Amino acid sequence: MKAWQATPPFGLAALRLVELPRPTPGPQQVLIRVRAASLNYRDLEMAGGTYQGQPQHAFTLLSDGAGEVVEVGSAVTRFKPGERVIGCFWQGWESGRLGDAGNALALGGPLDGMLGEYALLDERGVVPCPARLSWEEAATLPCAALTAWQALVVEGQLKAGDWVLLQGSGGVSLFALQFALLHGARVIVSSSQDDKLQRLQALGATGLINYRRTPEWHRQVMALTDGQGVDHVLEVGGPRSFTQSLLSLRPSGQVNVIGYLGGQQGEINPLLILQRNARVRGIAVGPRQSFESMNRAIEASGIRPLLDSVHDWLDLPKALTHLQSGRHFGKVVLRLGHT
Q: What is the pLDDT of residues 271-284, one digit of tens each?
């Protein structure tokens, strides 16, 4: 089988399309014919060799993929051949807290990921595809969608009438917008591009902030919420935006730390957390149990992931470059052809 691997010394020029043996399932494993995979910002860092805890050996890329079961091990009870499934980002985290799942490892580094013609996974690290979703749509769910769901719904206990502040229009923020509206919440979004803000407004965002024109954007958040502040922030910018996220909160509000697109260096005043009685948590995607709950909500509501573009999987370098450019709106997806 063919697979895309990141190889030392890493970088886009070091990506390799390699030929590997087709795996054979062990007793509790399922063999999946991968039909689609999707890109996350994490994959750019993994390909480039800059991710924290980066494996120093060659590995198959991408945490997110969907396909059909073609073969199962002798002890498998959860799936049978022909079923449509999605791999879980975390293998070994089924429920509860990540810290209690001592053997949890992520796909697409350090574990081999989903960007091969076949993927071999433990049956406990796989979930059924939501009904009606295409392969390409289903492939977008494991990382970005579940991160948004875990932050707002599972950890945040989102409820109708809450205010949610989202930063940018990346995959997590777009899924968070959909999930917030599903629960009757009101959403403020920030972006540096007016055309993206207009598209976010069309999707249902209540408040729009161009953070380049409004550097002190927390003041506009306060104005939009009549001085009350927001209940939830999905913080993707990193230390340089964290202070304004705290200043945007209502008392006892929540900041969910998702990423660090604005950089990894900066100072944070802990007194702001104390003064706001803020709850600050890191969100490391979520367990299989949350994934299954989210998929039930997607099925019941009819939510469909927003796709920016679909590329042939052999064009991986081009798709990664497109993601890196920041021009996308929605998920960048790869479609796998099989010989």
A: 889 999 999 999 99
Quick check: bond before 21 cis, omega within 30?
no
Sheet holding 2-6, edge to edge: 16-19, 2-6, 59-60
- Record the tokens describing residue 271, joined without a space: 């007194």
| Domains and their CATH numbers in the chain | 2-140+305-335 (3.90.180.10), 145-282 (3.40.50.720)
Say if residues 142 and 127 touch (Cβ distance below 8 Å): no
Q: Tell me the pTM.
A: 0.95
Are residues 151 and 234 in contact, defined by beta-carbon separation less than 8 angstroms? yes
- pLDDT for 263 beyond 50: no
Q: What is the mean pLDDT of the chain?
A: 94
DSSP string, 2-27: EEEEE-TT-SGGG-EEEE-PPP---T
3-state secondary structure of 207: strand
**Mean local confidence (pLDDT), 13-18:** 95
* CA distances, 33 to each of 135, 288, 338 (Å): 11, 20, 9
First to last CA, the chain: 9
Cα angle 132-136-140, degrees, rounded to a multiple of 5: 95
- For residues 145 and 294, is the Cβ–Cβ distance under 8 A? yes
pLDDT-above-70 percentage for the chain: 97
